[in-house]
Amino acid sequence: MTDADLITAARNAALKAYAPYSGFSVGCAILSDEGQLVTGANMENACYRLGICAEQSGLTAAQHAFGLSHIAAIAVAGGDGSGEALEGEQVCTPCGGCRQALLEASHLAGRDFTILCASGDGEKVERLTLSTLIPHGFGPANLTDAR
Predict the structure, then answer these.
(1) Of 15, 69, 133, 144, which sits most exposed with the smallest number of CB within 10 A?
(2) pLDDT > 90: what percent of the chain?
(3) Domain boundaries in the chain?
(4) Cα–chain-centroid distance for residue 37?
């Protein structure tokens, strides 16, 4: 699967988001090291705190399908999903909470993930490493001194 295919999968996933409050649809596509693809989308809730981000949704699907340690590639796209195609010119990056969840998965996989962050229209893409998105992150390795 090419980077463009992975971004398309994330953009398509965003069209399945439930975002009636923010109007901002986000999709996440995660590819396993064996070529299996899963997607996730944000699901908002009237009690805002109970919503779930696309990346967390995608990570849950990945854990169930092939395990977090087998993640090979990740793409995120976000924008206006109210039409037939995702729109928007601004590159969408994972929020802080999602960066932490992705960090946990990267520690389990034993490698720094590259995340393709795309605009809603798919025209702009930034290839960012997780260590760039969350420098000095706190993960499982930081708990080695715990009992």
Answers:
(1) 144
(2) 91
(3) 3-135
(4) 13
The pLDDT value given to residue 135: 94
Q: Are 80 and 11 in contact (CB under 8 A)?
A: no
User: Does the pTM exceed 0.85?
Assistant: yes
Q: Which residues are catalytic?
A: 55
Going edge to edge, which strands form the sheet with 114-119?
Answer: 37-41, 25-32, 71-79, 114-119, 125-129
Round to whole Å and give the CA distance between 8 and 125: 12
Question: What contacts 20, CB < 8 A, 6 or more positions away?
Answer: 44
With a cut of 70, list the residues of the chain below it in pLDDT: none
Nearest-angstrom CA–CA distance, 36 and 49: 31
Contact 76, 115 (CB under 8 A): yes
Fold that domain 3-135 belongs to in CATH: Cytidine Deaminase; domain 2 (3.40.140)
The conformation of residue 119, written as its DSSP 8-state character, comes to E
Residue 125 phi/psi, 5-degree rounding, is -135, 135
